[in-house]
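Re: that backbone. Tokens:
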């Protein structure tokens, strides 16, 4: 039964990094595509556009951190992994907030950063407003990250 628990925990961990990285890659790509014509017209806007392009990429990092924490907690990185089915399920579900929330927030944040590119193109002095708007979406990715981290870190305390 320990093998099935490990499979479930690793499936959750894999989804947490994979889905968030898919969302981040798509989001960074969308913003990069929108930024290219603006940079061709005015290369001095590069730094403002780069900030916007990087913003949807953070969700992939959050997913990676949760994945590493799961792997550390289950003993896959320097230990002897042995999980019950219940523990495996707990790790699986603990990964879901960042997996799903990270994917969706990266894609939604990309929509905001793409519109932010238009702000920078027309009024570079207003780039702060574009960044603040994208940060509001980031807040929900952070909530998902914190929820997953707290769950992952406290599964061992349940004493299963």
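Recovered sequence:
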């Amino acid at each position: 039964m320990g093998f099935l628990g490990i499979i479930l925990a690793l499936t959750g961990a894999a989804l947490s990094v994979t889905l968030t990285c898919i969302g981040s890659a798509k989001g960074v790509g969308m913003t990069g595509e929108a930024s290219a014509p603006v940079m061709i017209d005015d290369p001095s806007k590069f730094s403002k556009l780069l900030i916007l392009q990087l913003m949807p990429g953070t969700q992939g990092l959050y997913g990676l951190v949760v994945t590493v924490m799961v792997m550390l907690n289950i003993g896959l990185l320097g230990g002897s992994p042995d999980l019950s089915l219940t523990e495996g399920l707990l790790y699986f579900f603990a990964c879901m907030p960042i997996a799903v929330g990270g994917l969706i927030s990266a894609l939604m944040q990309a929509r905001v950063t793409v519109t932010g590119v238009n702000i920078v193109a027309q009024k570079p002095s207003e780039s702060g407003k574009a960044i603040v708007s994208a940060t509001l979406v980031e807040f929900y990715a952070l909530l998902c990250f914190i929820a997953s981290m707290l769950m992952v870190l406290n599964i061992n305390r349940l004493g299963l």
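The chain has one domain: 2-158. The longest helix spans residues 2-41.
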